[in-house]
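Reopening: Clp protease still failing for me.
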Amino acid sequence: MFERFTTRARTVVQSAHEEADALGHRTVGTEHLVLAMFTAGGIAADVLRACGVEAEQLRATVAGADDAAALRSVGIDLDAVREKVEETFGPGALERAEPPRRGGFFFRRTKLSGRFGNDAKKALELSLRVALSMKHNYIGTEHLLLGVLRDERGAGGRLLREQGMTYERTMELVRAALRNVA
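Support: Ran it again with your exact input. Result attached.
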């Protein structure tokens, strides 16, 4: 499946798994793909920055940094809940356990496609379609970004649209970046 992916696009896919792991998410979604684009660099990262998207702000949003405020607004005090749980079950009872580290690159490659959520699978499929429509025989980070934006239901595209990005404008920026590279 990943044979048409550039080295950077493959890095996005691998780093998306790492982003999901770091956030304690079981499946890899389009939001993890977007975060991984910053790690991989390339055209997608350049376009995201040009559109004013910041990795740390996006990561905080994906991590649910706003959840505490939302819960407070309905009368739930997370600090009080944590205190009560730790009183009952002991200190650190709510801390996430580190996922077991296994094998190296081979182990990761064999589990890549099985962890993708439906939105990420759709975005990867759309990135291939975008590449073909642009008459490219490879899938680069720019195609992944456009695939994420083209998927109407994925969290990554929704987050980017909330930041003012559109598919059409992003396509213009990608085309300009590709002209500058050539």
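Residues 149 and 161 are 8 Å apart (CA to CA). If you still see a failure, please send the error message rather than a screenshot.
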